[in-house]
């Protein structure tokens, strides 16, 4: 997987029902995104956006249809090495009562010198961290400091970037921050996403002007697909 992994994603007639509730969250969804491209997904609450992201992360297997990564069935890939190449920024940030460093390096087997700092720089949160007395050793959580919403979001982005993933997924992570913070983060996103296949789930249309492709979901179906100009 590792060597040739480029990050092209294709969905072919994918349907998925949550086994516990019987809710049919995605219905016959097909699309393709080339390596290095930026796909945006919009749609009302409950339309299936997070489900689509969850399926790419392979939290669940599809009921019918197929998901392919670089032309290979996602089902057939080694889950551990695949997930190591996918950076996921969830809707809600989860931080631990631990140092900033350990929060960013979370999930890595081994940390190279400078790796945490570089990820923080790429996520545009390095300067904020350096401004704390204890810098990367600053404790977060109950016994530590509280970061602002935008800072938390960027720590979460740094955590996704530290793996140098080929695929980046942002699950609606910007709707929780104010517009000013959103702009600040988006300003850096272009550079972050360069050369990576990126998927951004968003609420605000303004967030996704630069997408190569936009998918509009409604009740689990793709109702529109195209560029910002086309839609
Ligand atoms: P939002 O914008 O509110 O995050 P969304 O477009 O991301 O919504 P999904 O979270 O994918 O929508 O939800 C699609 C449908 O699947 C909804 O009806 C939802 O209630 C249901 N659903 C989502 N997650 C689960 C789950 N873990 N178990 C069962 N049903 C779920």
Question: Care to describe what's here?
Answer:
A hairpin with a 6-residue loop joins strand 1 (9-17) and strand 2. The chain has a six-stranded mixed sheet, sandwiched between helices. Strands 2-1-4-5 form a four-stranded antiparallel sheet, with helices on one face. It is α/β, with parallel strands linked by helices and 231 residues long. The longest helix has 15 residues, at 179-193. Helix content is 26%, strand content 26%. The N and C termini lie far apart (36 Å). It has helices at 49-56, 79-83, 100-104, 115-122, 126-130, 149-161, 179-193, and strands spanning 9-17, 24-33, 38-43, 64-69, 72-73, 86-89, 167-171, 197-201, 213-218, 221-226. It has two domains: 1-85 and 165-231, Rossmann fold; 93-164, P-loop containing nucleotide triphosphate hydrolases (Rossmann fold). Residues 18, 20-21, 23, 25, 43, 45-51, 172 line the site of adenosine-5'-triphosphate.
């Amino acid at each position: 997987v590792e060597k040739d992994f480029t990050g092209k994603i294709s969905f072919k007639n994918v349907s998925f029902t949550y086994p516990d509730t019987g809710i049919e969250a995605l219905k016959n969804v097909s699309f393709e995104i080339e390596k290095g491209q930026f796909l945006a997904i919009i749609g009302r609450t409950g339309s299936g956006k997070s489900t689509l992201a969850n399926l790419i992360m392979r939290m669940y297997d599809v009921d019918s249809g197929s998901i392919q990564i670089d032309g290979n069935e996602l089902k057939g890939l080694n889950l551990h090495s695949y997930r190591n190449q996918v950076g996921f920024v969830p809707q809600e940030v989860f931080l631990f009562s631990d140092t900033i460093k350990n929060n960013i390096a979370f999930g890595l087997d081994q940390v190279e010198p400078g790796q945490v700092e570089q990820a923080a720089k790429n996520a545009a949160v390095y300067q904020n961290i350096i401004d704390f007395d204890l810098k990367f050793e600053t404790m977060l959580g109950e016994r530590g400091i509280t970061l602002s919403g935008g800072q938390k979001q960027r720590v979460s982005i740094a955590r996704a970037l530290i793996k140098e993933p080929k695929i980046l997924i942002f699950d609606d992570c910007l709707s929780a921050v104010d517009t000013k913070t959103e702009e600040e983060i988006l300003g850096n996103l272009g550079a972050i996403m360069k050369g990576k296949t990126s998927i951004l789930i968003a609420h605000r249309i303004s967030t996704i002007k630069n997408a190569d492709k936009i998918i509009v979901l409604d009740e689990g179906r793709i109702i529109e697909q195209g560029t910002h100009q086309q839609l």
